[in-house]
Amino acid sequence: DENAAQLTRAFDEIGWPGRHILGDDGARAAFLILQHAIGHPALQRRGLAMMLDAIPLGQANALDAAYLSDRIAMFEGREQTFGTQFDWDESGQMSPARVRDPSGLDERRASVGLPPMAEAIAEMRARVAAEGEQKPGDHAQRRAEYEAWARKAGWRD
Rounded CA gap, 124 and 116, in Å? Predict the structure, then answer.
């Protein structure tokens, strides 16, 4: 929350804190704060709009914007565009959250420098297995808790 408040102040004072102001490391840090500010929907939406304006100027990264736009879509209950956000599915597999137009997914992913979806799924599942993560015991309960959180945080009506 403190980082989100500081990023909000930065947005108010300087706009998107891009490479021209903070260098590559600082701009990356701003993105990471924004990407993880999941309890601040208005900040994430505002930041995405600023990032999209900054990309043509070379001050933000299209790949970062893809991750953030997918995260926002997932939290809002919409289909993601690039397939960057994963969660446990009903069969207990770590899988991408819903995506729009699956037939064009790999092309969209390539446009921002992401590998094909099949590779991403295999990598994510291998990482989850290596880290010893376990599927949730009660998928329906987990989904209900997630939906309640999304409403409380302001992602959904």
Answer: 13
